Amino acid sequence: MEKTNTIKKLIIIPAFNEADSLCTLVREIERVSPDYDYIIINDGSSDDTVKVCEQNGLNVITLPVNLGIGGAMQTGYLYAKQRQYDIAIQLDGDGQHDPAYLDTLIEPVISGQADFCIGSRFIDKKGFQSTVMRRSGIMFLVFFIKLVSGMEVLDATSGFRAANKDVINAFCEYYPYDYPEPETICVLLKKGYKVKEIPVQMRERSAGVSSIRFLKSAYYMVKVTLAILISGIRK
Amino acid sequence: MQPIAQIFTVISILVFFIFIVMKIRKGVMDYKYALVWICLGLVTLIFSVFPASFAFIARKIQIAMPLNLLFFLGILVCLAFIFTLITSLSKLKRKFYILTQKNAILDKTVNELTYKIDRLEEINGGVE
After folding, report:
1. Long-range contact list for B36-40, CB < 8 A, 24+ apart?
2. pLDDT tens by residue, A82-141
3. Are A75 and B104 an interchain contact pair (Cβ–Cβ within 8 Å)?
4. How many CA atoms lie within 13 A of B7 on its CB side?
5. Which residue of chain B comes nearest to A71, CA vs CA?
6. What is the pLDDT of residue B3?
7. Residues of B in contact with A67 (CB under 8 A)
8. Which residues of B touch A79 (CB under 8 A)?
9. Would the pTM count as exceeding 0.80?
10. For chain B, which terminal residue's Cβ has fewer other Cβ atoms within 10 angstroms, N or C?
C-alpha cells in the first residue's frame, strides 16, 4: 500500500461546457481518492467553466480555442509528461465515471499486468448501459478493432482509462484529434503495448449533452471505422 | 485561333504575371507557391502564342478536339491544387494544435509561478 502512495497519479478531466458538473466531480474525487492529483482541461468552453474553476480554486488548464476531445486529452498527457506523473487516468467531466473505481482501474497498470487499462461497462453488464443504438454501434467497432489488432475490447468507446508512463509518452507523440477512443486502442496494440479491460459501473451523465449527437453518429461511425482500419497499416 | 482572340489571351496572361509579381513583392505568397503559378502561366503563354502546338499534342494522344484536352488538363491542375491545399492544411492543423497545447500548459505554469511569487512577496513584506 505504501508503494502505491509514492506513485504519482494524475486524473485528466477533459471538459467542454460542463461547468455544472465539474465542481461536484472534483469534490467527489478529493473525498474518495485524495491521493490522486487532477487536472481539468477546459477545451475552450463557451459557458462559465473558467469562472466556476476560478471561484472554486480548481486546477485547470484552459485551451484558448476549442481543439476537440483529442486535442484536449493530449494536452493532459503532455502535462502529465512535463510533471513526471507515473500514471495518467482519463475521467470524463460529465460525471459518467465513478471515482470509486480509480484504484481498481490503475491496479493492473501498477502491477505491470497492462500498460493501458480501460474501464468497461459491458463486462459485468451492470450500471448504465447506454442505448441499444449506441451499443450496436460499439459492437460494430469492436468487430473492426478485433479484425485489425486481434484483441476483443468490449467497451471500445469508454473514456475511463489509465495509462502508464510509456503510454503517456506514446500519446504525447500521437493522439487522434476527433473521436479518439477506439483508435487509440488500435494504435497502442499495434505498438505492442498491453491493453486490459476491467469491469466498472458507469452512471448516466449528470449534466451536459453527449458530444456525439444523433445527426453526427453516421459520420462518427464512418470516420472511426476508417481510422481503425488505417491504424492497421499506419507507419 | 483568331488573331484578336490570341492577343486577348496573351494580354490576360501578362496581366496575370504582373499580378503574381506584385503579390510576391508584397510577401503575400511563398516563393514555393509563386513558382507553381509562374510555371502555369508560362505553359499557358506558350500555348496561346503557338496554339497549333496544343492541337498537335491533342492529335498525338488521340483526343479528337483540342478543347477536350484543355478541359481535362484544367481539371487535373485544379484537383492537384486542391490536394496540395488540403495536405498543407492538415500539416498546419497539426502545428496549430501543438502550439495551442504548449501555450495553454505554459500559461498554467506561469499562473502557478506568479501565485508563488506573490505569496513569497507577501511573506517577505510581512517580515520587514
Report:
1. B40/B77
2. 999 999 999 998 888 999 999 999 999 999 999 999 999 888 877 777 778 788 888 888
3. yes
4. 3
5. B97
6. 82
7. 97, 100-101
8. 105, 108
9. yes
10. C
